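Purpose: get a first structural picture of the assembly so the mutagenesis plan has something to point at.
Setup: two entries, given in the order below. No constraints added.
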Amino acid sequence: MARVLVGVKRVIDYAVKIRIKPDKKGVLTDGVKHSMNPFDEIAVEEAVRMKEKKIASEIIAVSCGPAQAQDVIRTALAMGVDKGIHVDIPAKEFETLQPLHVSKMLAKIAQDEKVDIVILGKQAIDDDCNQTAQMTAAVLDWPQATNASKIEKGDKDVTVTREIDGGLEVIKCKLPVVISADLRLNEPRYATLPNIMKAKKKPIKKVTPKDLGVDTAARIEIVSVEEPPVRKGGTIIPDVDTLVAKLKEGGFVP
Amino acid sequence: MNTALFDCKATIIMHGIMFLRKTNRVGCRVENIGFLSDTTQKFPVERGEFNKLNNGHKGFFRQLLGDYRVITDNHDLVKYNNDWFGYVKGCSQIVLKPKTTEEVSQILSFCNENRLAICLQGGNTDVVGASVPVFDEIVVSTELMNEIIDLDENSGVIICQAGCVLENIDKKLEGSGLMVPLDLGAKGSCHIGGNVATNAGGLRLLRYGNLHGNVLGLEVVKANGEVIDCLSTLKKDNTGFHLKHLFIGSEGTLGFITKVSLQCPPRARSINVAFLGLQNFDKVLKTFRKAKEDLCEILSAFEVIDSTSMEFAKETVGITSPIGDYPYYLLIETSGSNPEHDADKLYKFLDLVLVKHLALNGTLATEPAKVNAIWAIREKIPEGFKHSSVLCYDFSLPLSKYFDLVEDMRNHMGSLAKKVFGFGHLGDGNLHLQIEVNEMSKEVRDHVEPNVFERVKQMNGSISAEHGMGFLKANYLSFANPPSKVEMMRNLKSMLDPKGILNPYKVFPWTYS
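Result (structure tokens, whole complex):
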């Protein structure tokens, strides 16, 4: 049975409207509702299903971020993950933290925990980088299967169906492997109340980047964060009849 | 021989009467062939003594509103003549879209003088046939009366035109940290004017009370075109009769609401939703009492769904329970200003509910996207009605008998119904009873009504908790109210709208069968 590591990032909830900080150096996060990155939720769900099918023996969820990152680890634990590791990054440092930093930390934990499969969301909905899985595989020098929509585990390998432009690609990778989860891989469950209560008692280990031997010094400087230009209310309509109906509805034509 | 002749004569006379009756009844249809009103084919309703629309009238409306805001194209009229369920259907040949109170006033004054019947229409999301014409009434739509006039952030009062879509008002308020005090499944299409005219209830009534408390003022146009200004923004104003209340829930039969001033509470910064599975209704009631005690001031919604409702939702709109199958489900929402405080209260409550075995299972959403997803389970059930034939009822019942009615009706319907199910705002004692049938026939409806209303009356309930009487329940006005009350309603109607041009065939009975 495989040991599985999943990455869970705390991001601003996708139902919340994003607001830019007055100094234009980032987005407002204070008092804003956060949740687990939806693609990471899919990764967690896949790992939990593996455990339910007795393919996985233990699942570890890792989150890199400030103290509140523990919230999403708790969510993962409530969904069925066994233990959590919180890599504590001060809020200020977190602003310039990049996929390269995170992948080095994930790689180190993957080695320390002797995991066979790393499953990460294909991208986070805040920075949309889509790099962490690829970089983690590179740091570890493991095979990678990105944008997975189906994962089947064999004895010493996994067969992964990938969503690519214009179709599906099926690849086979030797273990250990890094996989990134795409939208259609599964539909994440709702954690049940008994499991939410139980999750409060599951262990979360706190470590620092230093413990993992990773330098999190900024490699970039944020020059400016801007809102996208406001779109001038255009809509796409299916046919001429709808166009005529819309014009009449608005009282523009008789 | 004599006898035979006598018989024959009698037959002729009888046929004669029947023929006369028929022509009388279909009087309006003969000329409008091709636009037969479905409603009048289904129900024995007779057209009132109103004049018919002619080219002169059309000319006046075009002069007043211009060509673009007068709709007469048959194709374009469809959406204004048909209700949301596709159950009632009028044959109006004109829709007017005023933008201002002055225009409404001129339209009404003209129609009153010319004895032309009017159907008032907002977002047309009504479910009792109130928002569509029955015959050829002129539809006056508030679609273009959609301006937000003023927002006072200090007092939390918004003034807007009657045609503002509820959700748009809420979006406007969001920027100021406020929210509308009512929330309905139809919020994306319903108009505030219609909400007020029908005294719409909805999901937040438990916390914020009904519109009689939240509407501070109204501007209303009487049938003769006179504008009544009750558009106060004051919370306290005892200078004479509180006339606005007359129009809240009048279903457009007393006047045309053109502007609304609404009191808006602060927008909650912390919203949590718990979804629970329970074994029986007794436990539902116990959980309700516990929720009121323990969650107290942060409790903002308490909705119940039975297992058959969930099956129906699964079959029609593909919604499933996120926690597995249970006889009853509860959706409990809390909203407040402090996330830690609310979470602490809610966790303690949920822990207790599980430990005491009141709930068998559940889930909790504390993040906006998940909160929305859980709410969608409850809000999407009515969308299934569009994919099936469902008789919808909306009752207030004493809580102890809340689900007895569903069981009673299931037995009463037997094989006539595919499904009998109930869900609703348990916190307000409001049950939405639904009867899904293979085909919506007169036989089926006659089997249900008035039987179901009698049962509700026996249980000391109300036959319309929030939907109103509209067209479909209008004949039960006297059934639901004592004679003195009905008499006073009639007096008010004849005083404010002596010619009865505003929403005829609605609220007041159209037949005494």
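Confidence is low (pLDDT under 50) at residues 1-35 of chain B.
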